[in-house]
Amino acid sequence: MTSQQAALSADEIRAEIRALKRRKRASLLLVVPLLVFIFFAFVAPIATMLYRSVYNPTLVELIPKTVQELSGWKKTELPDPVVFSTFAKELKELAESRRSGVLAAAINRAYPGASSLVNSTARKFRRLPDDTLIKDGKTLLTEADPRWGQPELWRAIKVTGQVYTDTYYLTALDLERNAQNEIQQRESASIYIQLYTKTLGIALVITLLCIALGYPLAYYLAHAPRRIAGMLMVLVLLPFWTSLLVRTTSWIALLQTNGVLNSVFESLGLINSPLEMLYTRFATIIAMTHILLPFMILPLYSVMKGIDPSFVRAALSLGSRPFSAFVRIFLPLTLPGLSAGSLLVFIISVGYYITPALVGGTDGQMISNIIAFHMQRSNNWGLAAALGTLLLVLILVLYWTYDRLIGARNIKLG
Fold first, then answer.
1. What is the band of 1 on the pLDDT scale with cuts at 50, 70, 90?
2. Which residues contact 107 (CB under 8 A, 6 or more apart)?
């Protein structure tokens, strides 16, 4: 016991402990709104995305008896006739409740062409009696369409019927399982790995362009007179006061075939026919560089403004040349701002959606556009969740690599 504790009575010590607990509770109550916001805005959506990427209850809910019958099937030859009969009866029930389209869409993701097959068969079975379907289910299915006699179709139904599956992740990596349950390269079009590669390439180019354009401007802002620097800073911040949609559509007016740039180039005699600039990867890079440039300039400016000019002057007075003094003295001191700006621009550009969708066309699409497509149009939320999870993992790996090579503690935003 210290001398201060010895000088306090037992009642005073208990009072101090109660006061400390009250302060801790008050501090916790102040933080609770932030914790609630983080949970609902970040933790819950990410957890839902991770769950949806492996959870696939569609077929179990629509044709539970067929899925149960297929659980013991070895995928080598056609299932038993009882599987055909069970499926035929459940398909009729779905047709009567107008839910056969949901089943068709789910199977079609694993077996292309199954959508029209299931829907047409469901229409034929709608008016057949249950006894006939149970008795001659296999014959009726194969007569309706010969594809019902192919083991590949039933393998697709069995794979799609798994409640928890890795199919979405395999598809996102351009992989699949064969009849022997072995992982192999997907035989159909392999697009997702190329999309990830293209997305990272576009993000890297945008980051390098922002460095090339933003570093000199931030240097000039940090060393310009206060009045000029203030006016230029307003111009840098001006894009934040303008709608992102307006800025993106303005690039459509500039880059389209009969747009401003082509008209100027033709009037100057630089080109004979309009250039195809819109709906290309070039349009995506240019528009996103313009939009993300302030995220590079502001961290650089805040760091450069805090660098003591006497450091460079001391190097010059000791005989160093201006370029050498810049590279060996000034540039290392700006690395915290450069790191922060590069990470901001790269991570934001990797997940950008609206700008590539409006100006990128087919060549300028990024992985975020494909994720949006599967969520909004194809309704394949499982694959969209798997693609989003892989994108999240990729960003975390890049951040971990950066931390190991340079150190996240060197990041400085101001």
1. very low
2. 59, 114, 115, 118, 156, 157, 160
